[in-house]
Amino acid sequence: MERWTRRWTAHAALSRRAVLALTVLGLLAVGATLVALRDRPQTVEPDTAVQAATGPAPETGAAPSGDVIVHVSGDVSDPGLFTLDSGARVSDAIEAAGGPLPEAELDGLNLARPLTDGEQIVVGPPDPEDTGAGTAGGSLVNVNQADAATLETLPGVGEVIAANIIAYREEHGPFVQVEDLVNVSKIGDAVLADIAPLVTVG
């Protein structure tokens, strides 16, 4: 009887140690799981990531590079400043201004000419009182003497090109021949062809 009691006591002590060990291991496992969950990086929901990646870019208000700004005036429905693609033609600028009025004269314009940034397109014959381009007899514009307002009456010449003409002659002296205007910034062969019959150098 005494031997059996000693065996039972030893067995009971061993069982308690086993239970205690299992309990400690269980607590350690739970603790490790909690730490792993806490340290796991937060993931971004797919919809949010896609929205952030594909959302519209903020508007800057700046015109895209390569565009041209032209001034359309005269016999058009809606004269003013217009921003067009760099490959646009005179006809595109007139359409952007609402199209020509019924009384507009388009024969004096090269509708197929590519636009130049800063130029002015005048639809219809200019009013001598408003333009100051010459006398009633149709005198040529002297590019060595004309001010900016007079230069701007020429087809394809806006505020920017007129200022460039004045700056060029102040830096290099008077123009020797009409063809020298092609050396002015923003005056290409097309613009020169339009204004050459209307200007003189002296």
Describe the structure.
With 202 residues, the protein is mainly alpha-helical. The chain folds into three domains: 40 residues; 63 residues, Ubiquitin-like (UB roll), CATH 3.10.20.600; 77 residues, Photosystem II 12 kDa extrinsic protein (DNA polymerase, domain 1), CATH 1.10.150.320. Helices cover 41% and strands 10% of the residues. The chain contains seven helices and five strands. A three-stranded mixed sheet has the order 2-1-3, covered by helices on one side. A hairpin with a 5-residue loop joins strand 1 and strand 2. About 8% of the residues have low confidence.
Provide a compact summary of the structure.
With 202 residues, this protein is mostly helical. Helices cover 41% and strands 10% of the residues. Mean pLDDT is 78; it is low at 58-63 and 127-137.
